[in-house]
Each structure stands twice: as structure tokens, then as C-alpha cells.
Amino acid sequence: MVLDDDGLPIELGRGAMGITYKAFDVDLRYPVTLKVISERYLGDESAQLRFLREAHAAASVRHQNVASVFHLGRTGSSYFYAMEFVEGETLENLIKRSGPLNVKLALEIATQVASGLAAVHKQKLVHRDIKPSNIMASMEEGGAVSAKIIDLGLAKSLNEPGAQTAISMPGGFAGTPEFASPEQFAGVPVDIRSDLYSLGITLWEMLTGNAPFRGTPGEVMHQHQHEPIPLEHLEGVPQPVVVLLEVLLEKDPGRRFQSPGELLNAIPTITGRIEAGRRITREGLHKMPRAASRTGTRKLPTREGPKKVSIARLPVTGSDIFGREEDIAFLDRAWANKDANVVTIVAWGGVGKSTLVNHWLRRMAAEQYRSAQLVFGWSFYRQGTSGGTSSADEFLDTALTWFGDPDPRLGTAWEKGERLAKLVAHRRTLLVLDGLEPLQNAPGLQEGRLREPALQALLRELAAFNTGLCVITTRTPVADIADHERTSALRRDLDQLSSDAGEQLLRALGVKGDA
Fold it and tell me: The pTM is what?
């Protein structure tokens, strides 16, 4: 825990189930947000179960506009989980401090929150408490802003009806009245469109300094459900934004945007109309192509490359591959799939595992590694494929140093592996481990299991949680992560080249002759 001048823990906020504090991860040497279940719920098993569901829901969503969960743990009878510590201030504080925001800034924050909600929606969750105090805003150099959703304490799974839907609130109304949708008050099932309504209320407050409906909880409930939105309070707000708010704040969910993606497609048109001084109708907004890409209507910032790259320790292979289009596509999908934490490429020697991965890395490099923050590659072949005992020590010391561990010598091998996993997982890292088989057990009862505790800890931790991707090549499936196969650990068994691909390869090598 980080303490204030009086020696007390720095409290960041309180929610329905827990209290959040500022803390410091001594292994990562990095500030984190620690959420601890409230003392009054310590003896309540159902409350603890809801707290665990909250942690699992938060950990399932990995997106740059949603605060990441790093670790779930238990101390005695108390549960806690560690989240990304987001610099800046809550949007609520920003509005109180500076007053109504300018339209451009408000729309940018709304865009980033909608992007985060798209990730929430993809996990079949509904947030149910989108509001300025649950959004962190960090002003960056040049006037740019970064916004993150920081609390999924009232999230609801669309796959868990009945008693399990309310993760952090046992029955009754869940949400904050000023920002809740009409259907939340009605007690009917809600979906992502409810969150879009709450985002509309949040956008309204960004532009005016106040929520549209105020009063006692009962009065606010009635206004959300029955009263028209007070458009007279939007004096000075550009007409296209007024239309956007009208659509977001429809009483009937069927008349709103049906997904965050639809909203994201609409916002560039709104900003374009503002810049051109043109108006837009609600019908025109709804008639926009739903499959339109944001990149077609809005100039996106140039993609930045990773902060650090180290792939010199990977083996040198040929630059051309043949007949591996589906395998390359598999790796592309794995990188884009936020549920994939580890990928294992399995094949006998000479089939082309390393060549395949190197070719894919060259494609990634040509696209600035597609949002990867760090890229690190290592080959274990140099460590004893001739039959002697292989060691992971060189890899571990080099990797811990490269990723910023203050003293790679400290701790047991298992503890070092856990530390490295944390350093890798909390940033979007592309980690390539080539030729893992020298460190695995030979055929037998322990076939495929790693012999090194550090690597056991590393891969088990990464299979459980990883914001990036670990790509492994080996001749034998890694038994240590078998429990995660087909969920977060994917496996690709490479076949020998087909006859057609082999023929293409021979032609490329200049081999001539009759079949």
C-alpha cells in the first residue's frame, strides 16, 4: 500500500463491494490500483463470489480504453485484485475543475469510451454504471487526451441469467440514477444499449457541466423513463451533436445505436458536419452504413512502433515460404484475438517452424508490429541440443534485465519466472520462444513438461493472463499449459509441405526436371 503523510493508505474510491487503494508492485516496481473486498462482506460467501466474478469480468476485457487487471489474490479470508494504475483524474473531477468541455474534447473522450465499451460488448458484458467518476481522463502533451473505463463493479454477463447477473450487487437496482437507462429502472433485462444511453448522459454532462435530469432518486427515475430530454439546456452545442444526443438518449433501446460500433461509425460524420458547418437529421444519422469503417471517414494517427525490439537471438532462416498461407493467417488471428495468450507451433525438425515464425515477424515489422509495445525473441537451440542438459538461466537473466527487473539475481527460479511473466504481461508484448524442446522432458510419463521451474512459472502465468502474445516453437506440445488449450493457449500442428508447395519451392531454388 502507498501511504499518505499521516501514514494511512491512500484511498482512491469506494464501490458497491470494495475499496480501491493506491499500491506499489514491489516485483514490477510499478504503481497499481488495489481493490479489496469490504470488511462487512468478509464472512459472506455469496458476496465473495460476486467479488470474484467482478475480478474475472474485469480481467476478461483487455483494451487500451479499459484499465487492465494484473493479478487476483487472497490474503487470509480477504480477496483482492490489482489493476492498472491510471494517471490523471476522473472525468468527474475534470468537469468540476474546468467546467463544460469543448465539443472536440468531449467527442474524443466519448469515442474512446465507446471503443472500450466495444471490448466490453465483445465479452458479452454490460457495464451498467458508465458515468464520469468511472472514467479516467489524462491530458497529454499537445492537447491529446487518453480516457479509460476503470470500474466494472456492476458488470453483468449476458450469458449468466438470473441470480448470477448482478456481479457486485445482490438484487435490486444496480447503477447510478443520474446516469442509468430507463430499462435499468424498469427491472427488465439490459444489454449494451443501456451503456450507450449512460454514455449519452455522460457526453451531455461533459458539454453542459450537469446531467440532464436532477432531483430525488424517484424524480430522476421518472424523468429518465417519461420526460423528454431538456434540449433547451444545449444552447450553443452544435446541431449535429444535439442530434447525436437525441439518438443516444432515446427511451426505447430499439431507437438508439444498437452497438458501440454503430456509434463509432457515426462520430466521424458528426465531426465532419461540425467542421463543414452543416446540419444532420436523425434519419440521416441512422441511415449511415453500419459496416462503414472509421478509417474511411476519420484520419487516424500514424501507428507508432514498439518501444523496444530484440530479435537478434532468433535463428537465421530463409526469407521465402511456400504453402503456409493458412498458418500465417492463424498467427495473424492469434495476435488480433485478445483471448489468445500463448500460441504453440508444433512440428518435427525440418518442417519449417522457425522459418514460418520469422516470416510472420517480418510481416509484423512491416506494419510497425501492429500495436506491440515490446518485441523480444529468443532461441534455445544454442543451449544444448546435442544431448546435454539445457538451462534457461541465460535466457532468464537476459530477459529480466531487458524487461526492466531491478535485480535478476534475486529470488528462486520459480519466483524469477513469475516476475518475468508480470513484466511481459502488463504491456502488449510479442514474446517469441523458439526451439523449446531442449528444455522439455523426453517421451514418457512426463513427456512435454518443462524441466526448468522458471519456464514452468513463466508459461503458466502467461497462459492465465497476458495482454500480448507468446509464440512458442517446439517439437512436442507443452504439457504445462495443456489445461489452457483451446481457450487462452492455442496450438498449431504443422504438416509437411504439400506436393504443390514443394514444387513451388523447388522452382524458387532453381531446380529443374521432370515430375
Answer: 0.56
